[in-house]
Please model this.
Amino acid sequence: MIRLGRPLSEAVDCFQGDPALRLLPVLDERDCPAGAIYERDMRRILFNPFGHALLRNPSFGGRLDDHVQPCATIDRSASVEALIDLYAAQGQGCEGLILTDGGRYAGTVGGPLLLRLAAERDTRLAMARIERLERVTHESASFRADIEKLIADMVAMADRLSALAAEAAGRAGNNGQASAGMAVAAAQTADNLSGIAASGRDLAQLFQSMEDEVRRAGDAIRKAVEQARLGSRHNRTLSAQADGIGEVTALIDDIARAIGMLALNASIEAARAGEAGHGFAVVAHEVKQLAGQTRGAAAEIAGRIGEIRATAAQVAEGHVHMDAAIATADRAAVAVFDAVARHGAFSRTMADSVAEAGGSSDHIRQSASRISDNAAAAVDSADAMRKAADQLADEAHRLDARATAFLTAIRAA
Model:
């Protein structure tokens, strides 16, 4: 360094003494940088044919202050980045920077050192960019693999969801058809049971009439002793009543057989209906038992009718055994009355059971109708699920395209 006011020749001596020197800091009286003498300016003077003469000229050579040029200064505590940025801001002609400490001269930093620092910084930045690019490339590949796996899983899920929706729609459709068939069968069964209930009520009325007839027949038998001459007519009346009872017994047997078949069909339909037809199956079983009891009672009535007919034949053979025949007929009438009374109670119970079964059939029909409606709703839900699965697959493909574009842009950057 050199101070203001010194001869220019001293600056020349400094440059000659240090061939690597490119700038010579010039300080004022407070040791603050006032500028610098640059080697290139001194070279132009020395290479001038009259350069040495000019240096020896007191009026020229003594004016060092006239050759001081501005030079950028920076505090010595500044970072390397600040040094490089200030050096770059000076342009291509900058030979270095003057370092200060609290505003006072502290040293110089030459251009070669600054260039080397700048090159090192650029190298570090380039290496950092390369490392970042490598990390981005690695992360992009990993991200791409994750996205592809995610998209594949989403597509597989969408396909599975679509298949499940189609399967659910098929099952719901089948359930709807089965429920509709069950509703029709339940309606038919309810109609049949309504007819059977009406027949049962008619049968109960018929048994009531039969009770009255048997009671009158018993009265006639008891009066036979007093009215022996009317025995033949009473005998014919009794035979006619026996024939009527035989017809009723045959009717009871036919109705009981029909009820048994209906109960069997109802049990089969209840088994097909599953849990919903459990109550109906119980009622059908009870109806079947009542039908069996009715057929047994009808058979018993038929046997009793045979006894009545035999008794009537004996009465027709003669009045010799009239008393015994009348006693036998009386016992038979009592037995018939009891049997008719039991069958009347059976018929009324059967009518009530059949009416209850008809109500259960209506309930089953309503339940089947609700099941059919629910199955239709399930079909609609399955269709909506399949549409959602298709939309999910479309979104997965769109995500694939977007991820590909993103990774391409990252690699290009």
